[in-house]
Every structure is written in structure tokens, then in C-alpha cells.
UniProtKB/TrEMBL annotation:
It comes from Shewanella glacialipiscicola. This is Pyrroloquinoline quinone-dependent pyranose dehydrogenase beta-propeller domain-containing protein. Residues 32-132 form the Pyrroloquinoline quinone-dependent pyranose dehydrogenase beta-propeller domain. It comes from the Bacteria. InterPro entries: 6-blade_b-propeller_TolB-like, Beta-prop_PDH, Quinoprot_gluc/sorb_DH_b-prop.
């Protein structure tokens, strides 16, 4: 993700196109723009590539992000774990894996992600101090090559 010597814009440029008028960018400065932009105020605090095998294949080697959430907005965003689906080394979609919003009320604020040796994922919560265990549950059979039935989280 990082290349030594790269400059990612701040404070001269926000995201890909928002020029900060308070600072003049040096003419010789080359800025590397993001390859993918998350929505404003989702507050990504943790990320992990899923390297386990307990989830179905569609989740393997995908990037999971803990979005801590927008504590200072009237309309809440974030408060979820999302997966950035990657194909041919490019992000092709952003999908919610588990949401911790009940309407506009956050019930948790995911902070960090960790894959365990058994293939489950743990999600830390800095709102209530919980750790959630995210795992795949297929009630029809144990063949993980089938279409995903359900990803569950439990405390």
C-alpha cells in the first residue's frame, strides 16, 4: 500500500480532488492519489486481509475494514465492518459484513480486526469494551464451497 517516498496529499489535497486553499502545494511535489476512497466520516480504524479458511471462498484474501463511525454527525455513518472485494488487484465493491447501527443508534463501535487460527474473525468494540466473534454458519451442510448462508457475530 505504501511506497517509500510517496506523498499522499495532506495537507494540500484531501481525497482525490479536494484542494486545500490554505496551503500551496510545492510545484515539484508529486502526489499519489487514493486507489479507493471510503465515504467521509466512516473513521476506518482497523483493517485485515482475511487469510483463514472458515469463511466461504468469496471472503478469502479480501480486505476487511472496521469503520469506527461518525460520533459528531447528526446522520450516523460507519459503525460497521465492511469488506472491500478485490479482483485483479483492484477494489471492485464495498460490502457491509456486519452493522452495529440500530437505526441511528450505535450499539458498538468496531475498532480492530483479528483473524484467529481457526479462521474466525474477532472484532474489538471501543464503545462497550466487547470483543465479537464473527464466524460462518451454514445450517444445510458443512461444505464451505456452497453459496454463503450467513455470517454471524456473537459476544
Amino acid at each position: 500500500m505504501d511506497v517509500i517516498g510517496s506523498h499522499y496529499g495532506f495537507p494540500y489535497l484531501h481525497a482525490s480532488t479536494v484542494v486545500e486553499p490554505a496551503y500551496e502545494k510545492p510545484k515539484s511535489l508529486k502526489i499519489t492519489v487514493p486507489v479507493y476512497e471510503l465515504p467521509a466520516h466512516v473513521a476506518p480504524t482497523g483493517l485485515a486481509f482475511y487469510r483463514g479458511s472458515q469463511f466461504p471462498p468469496m471472503y478469502h484474501n479480501q480486505l476487511f475494514i472496521a469503520e469506527n463511525g461518525s460520533w459528531n454527525r447528526s446522520s450516523k455513518v460507519g459503525y460497521q465492518v465492511v469488506m472491500l472485494k478485490i479482483e485483479d488487484q483492484k477494489v471492485v465493491s464495498r460490502e457491509t459484513v456486519v452493522s452495529f447501527l440500530d437505526g441511528e443508534f450505535p450499539v458498538a463501535r468496531p475498532f480492530a480486526l483479528l483473524s484467529a487460527d481457526d479462521g474466525v474473525m474477532y472484532i474489538s468494540d471501543d464503545l462497550k469494551g466487547n470483543v465479537y466473534r464473527l464466524f460462518f454458519k451454514n445450517e444445510t451442510n458443512n461444505d464451505s464451497t456452497e453459496a454463503p448462508q450467513e455470517l454471524e457475530n456473537n459476544e
